[in-house]
Amino acid sequence: MSAAARRRHVERTAHARDRDLLIGAGRPSFVAEPPAPHLRLSYAGAIEERLTAGVRRLGDVVP
Q1: Is 15 within 8 Å of 58 (Cβ atoms)?
Q2: DSSP string, the chain
Q3: Is the pTM of this model over 0.70?
Q4: CA atoms within a 13 Å half-sphere pointing along the CA-CB vector of 13
Q5: What pLDDT sits at residue 22?
Q6: Nearby residues of 19 by Cβ (< 8 Å), 6 or more positions away
Q7: Which of 24, 41, 51, 63 is the most exposed place for a label (fewest CB within 10 A)?
């Protein structure tokens, strides 16, 4: 990961945290270099209203 990409990840992670979202890099889920940037999302057990609100907040974080 380049320094610029690492900086963007740190900034987005902080931005997400400010909106009560936790995001993590998807890179560790790949054996080889992934074809594009990825995020890991966890939503098991969440009720629909919380999912909807979370997706809206995620839209503010990830362009």
Answers
A1: no
A2: --HHHHHHHHHHHHHHHHTT---EESGGG-SS--SS--EE---TT--HHHHHHHHHHHHHH--
A3: no
A4: 13
A5: 81
A6: 57, 60, 61
A7: 63
